[in-house]
Structures are given as C-alpha cells and as structure tokens.
Design brief:
Blueprint lengths: L2 E2 L5 E3 H4 L5 E10 L7 E8 L11 E2 L11 E3 L13 E6 L9 E8 L2 H4 L6 E10 L4 E8 L8 E10 L2 E5 L3 E3 L2 H9 L1
Parallel strand pairs: 1-10
Antiparallel strand pairs: 2-12, 3-7, 3-9, 4-5, 4-8, 6-7, 8-11, 9-10, 11-12, 11-13
Bound molecules: calcium ion (2 copies).
The site of one calcium ion has 6 residues, from strand 3.
Length: 186
Amino acid sequence: MAISLKKGGTFNLSKKEPALKKIMVGLGWEMKPGVSLDLDCSVFMLGGNGKLPADEFFVFYNNLKSPDGSVQHTGDNRTGADEGDDEMILANLPLVHPNVQEVLFIVSIHEADIRRHNFGMLKEAYIRIMDVETKREVLRYDLDAEFMTNTDVEFGKLQRIDGDWNFVASGLGSNKGLQGFVDAFA
Ligand SMILES: [Ca+2]
Ligand SMILES: [Ca+2]
C-alpha cells in the first residue's frame, strides 16, 4: 500500500525503498464543469547553492530531458481530460548528476494570470511516485483545497542527504508563476 504523505512530511526513499532506482512522478487533475485549466509539471535540479548548474537542468514542456539523462518529461498535456496521470516525469536516480542536491517538482497553471485561473477551479489533483520496475505506487500526495487561491505549488522535492534520497512533501503554494521559479533558481 502506498504511503500517503502529509504536508511537510519526509520519506527516506533510499532506506525504505533500497531497490528503487527509476521513479515515475505522475500528476493527475480533473476540472470542475465549465472550466479548462492547463497544468504543467516541471522539475528544477539544483546544486548545493540552490541554483541550476545549467539552464538545461530545468526540465519542462520546452526542455524534456536533463543533460545527465536522469530526468525526462513525457510531454505537455493541456486539458487533463483523461483518467489517471495526465503529465508524467521519469527520473532515474543513479544517473542524477553528482552536483545535483535537490530535485524540485513544481505544478503550475499555464497563463494563470491572464486567464485568471487558480487551483480552486480543480475538482481534484494529485501527485504520486511510482516504482517504474515493479509498477508499485510508493507515495501519493493529494493536492487539496488548501491551494484554492494559488496558481502554482512546490509539491515535493527529492533531497540528497548523506547519499540517501529523501522525498519531502513540501506543499508550498504560491502565485509567482513558472517564471517566478525560474527567476529564483537561474
Ligand atoms: Ca500542461
Ligand atoms: Ca485527468
């Protein structure tokens, strides 16, 4: 059974799932009737100084693969119309560049400021981590009503601590847009 993490909770992936190497991070969302939101899942791979080692370590709909080949975005989904995971990120943990200390997972709403969209327009949204090899879900995190007035959220991050990968369910909502994150980490 998957572990459901509460906001702020930490999970030591390396210790609890020692065989875990390839993970799939899936984002799924459903809209309330009459609205159409485009959610985007993005990844910031940061060095010890909290910055991108190079621009290409920002993986999103216009840069689908990190330079070390460890993180891959499977492509933009603009409607969330299907069941299950609407956007997916694949990460091969042993391939993550040794200089990368944190891997941040961000969900943002495309052009939220222009279209006046926020998470309150969603019926439901979740993020989950799956073991690619066993197809087993190891973690699930439900993005719920607490982000109602937000347009973006840092839902979680992988942190390298003493060689172990820890997953932190950050759950930090904001309204800075994807560009706001780029400005902070570039
Ligand atoms: Ca999208
Ligand atoms: Ca969906």
